[in-house]
What we know:
two-stranded parallel ribbon; mainly beta; 16-stranded antiparallel β-sheet
Amino acid sequence: VKYDADQTSIFANVQYEHNYSENSADGFKAGVSLRHMRLDENIAFTDTTLQRSYDGFYQKEENIPGVFAEHTLELFDGSLTWIAGIRADMHNAFGTTVTPRTLVKYDFDENTTIRANIGTGWRTVNIFSENIGLLVSSRDIVFTESLLPERALNYGVNIVQQFNSEEGDVTGYVSADVYRTEFSNQIFPDYDTNPTKALVNNFTGTSISNSLQAELYIKLWKQVELKTGYNYLDVYRDVRGQHEQLPFTPTHKFMQSVSFAPEEANYHVDANIHWFGEQRLPDTHTNPEELRRPTTSESYAVINMQFTYTFDSFEVYTGCENIFDFRQEKPILSWQNPFSPYFDTSSVWGPTKGREFYVGLRYRLGE
């Protein structure tokens, strides 16, 4: 597939702000905006063996004038902050959309903060650029209807707890985010109905994304930094009365980073671990038996490490990525025959490159 694209984007914004008091964040802002985007995409097939139908010239032009307003109010000596906003956008093809949003922040004390927010959002999609992997597949991309903007309601809570030892040797924070997004229209290619096609349409049924993210950051003796993060994602649609997990979305992800930088030394060492849980993969049970894949991926981890030494005006660094050389085996279906109807790169869920060493030099022109 030959894919040529040209995009032009222009954004302009005029805003008025008024603070009611110099000693608080109480205030009001309002304004107008204009967004212009033109996307020209040209798709041609370098081989016509496969019966693919999506070649051609695609043009998309959006002109979106908008108005917005936001009000901020502080209460209880600044402990409680309430922000309420609303905007209206007039899309040249899809009409007017109003999107309200509000956020509340409460400081229990100088170390503990909780935030809650709720609001709506929308966007138009660019199927080819957002799913570029489909273009190197034998799948035919089929638009079953005209696509409307994606729309969703999102709400959630965030809490942050900071901590400091009396001597200042241990500082850091722990945070947690819980969010839910409810789509009233979602566009995600259907890989399952036919393994030789990707069907693209509007999905107006129940489509939910639940997420939980927890993070712990600790700094010890001003030399060692530890950061641990965990992410849980439950992303599904209700199809014919059953929960259907969206593919390529690991339910569990874990990240750990460690940095060691002695105060009076000219070097520092950094290491990180990324662990990914199982992901649902596209259904291939109708393929010939030798071209079928499991319905879920393996869980895997990637570990990286880097050593950096600093001179007066430049740094020398060396490191290794994917230290334990994890690679997905046979990531491409029907790789022996790239012009067969089963050639498919959409089952790539893990690293395809193995262990990699590198060395580099970074020069600073000035402080």
